[in-house]
Structure formats: structure tokens, C-alpha cells
Amino acid sequence: MAIGIFFVIVGILIAAYPQLLSMIVAAFIILIGITLLSISYHLKKSNKETNNPFVDFFIRY
């Protein structure tokens, strides 16, 4: 019930302030980028430590 009320309020805010939607989408894209960079860094780091050919095949660069 609370999450439904939250979505209604967010929907009203987005309808009233369309710039809010672009900020939400931009923040979501930035968070996805940071997550992918972090995952890539940790996979490369673990590949150097373990020298696993499976990880080496998928993470070449």
C-alpha cells in the first residue's frame, strides 16, 4: 500500500515537473555506469590474482 502511494506521488511530481523525469533517468544511467565500472575493475583484479581462463575469455580489455 505504501509503495503504491509512493508511485502515485512520484507520478504526480513527474507530471508537474517534467525535468524531474530527466534527472531520474540520468541518475539511473550514471549508477549503471558506476556499477559496470566497479564490476569490471574487480573482475580484472581477480583475474590477475587467479589467472582463470574463463574470466580471461570474457574480460579481455
What does this structure look like?
The protein has 61 residues and is mainly α. It has a domain at 20-61. It is 89% helix and 0% strand. It has 3 helices and no strands. It has helices spanning 2-16, 18-50, 53-58. Helix 1 (2-16) crosses helix 2 (18-50). The longest helix has 33 residues, at 18-50. The model has no long low-confidence stretch (mean pLDDT 83).
Short note summarizing the structure:
This protein is mainly alpha-helical and 61 residues long. The chain has helices at residues 2-16, 18-50, 53-58. The protein has three helices and no strands.
Main sheet makeup: none
Helix and strand sequence: HHH
Computed CA radius of gyration, to the nearest angstrom = 19 Å
Please give the oligomerization state of what you see: single chain
Q: Output the number of helix runs.
A: 3
State the share of residues found in helices, binned by percent. Answer: over 70%
Poorly predicted ranges: none
Question: What class do helices, strands and sheet pairing give?
Answer: mainly alpha
Count all strands and give the number. 0
Mean pLDDT: 83
Q: How many angstroms does the end-to-end distance come to?
A: 46 Å
